[in-house]
Amino acid sequence: MRTWENGLLSVREPGLVRACLGAPVLLADLTRDQLDTKVLHVRTGGREVIAKDAGGANHHIGREITAHRGHTGRLVAAGLAG
Fold first, then answer.
1. CA-CA distance, 22 to 76, in Å (whole number)?
2. How far apart are CA 31 and CA 69, in angstroms?
3. What beta strand segments (E) does 1-82 contain?
4. What is the per-residue pLDDT across 13-58, written as a single tens digit (0 to 9) for each?
5. pLDDT at res. 24
6. Distance CA 23, CA 61 (A)
7. What pLDDT is recorded for position 41?
8. Which of 1, 39, 61, 79 lies at a C-alpha separation of 20 to 30 Å from 70?
9. Which residues, in sequence order, are CB contacts of 23 under 8 Å at separation 6+?
């Protein structure tokens, strides 16, 4: 059975994204062939977002999350970044 992301994510991830975003609709798979990262363009609740998933071998995703929580999040809240 396919889920909202058409089987692009591992077993756990679709539910985690749904828990954060509600009822996501996949618009595009923007993944490039590098490491084990998936990048999905998603519509949810009247907005479009990028949902990103990375496996244990990817050490970059932690830095991205830290930057978003510490810096980028404030820029987004101020309408200065996507």
1. 20
2. 23
3. 25-29, 37-44, 47-54
4. 899 899 989 999 999 999 987 778 889 999 999 999 999 888 777 8
5. 94
6. 23
7. 96
8. 39
9. 4, 44, 45
CB proximity list for 5: less than 8 A, separation 6 or greater: 13, 14, 17, 24, 26, 40
Say if pTM beats, i.e. exceeds, 0.85.
no
pLDDT for 76: 82
- Alpha-carbon separation of residue 39 from 5, 42, 74, 76, 78 (angstroms): 11, 10, 22, 19, 24
pLDDT at 10 over 90: no
**CA distances (Å), origin 74, targets 31, 39, 47, 50, 79:** 26, 22, 18, 17, 9
Exposure on the CB side of residue 57, measured as CA atoms within 13 A: 5
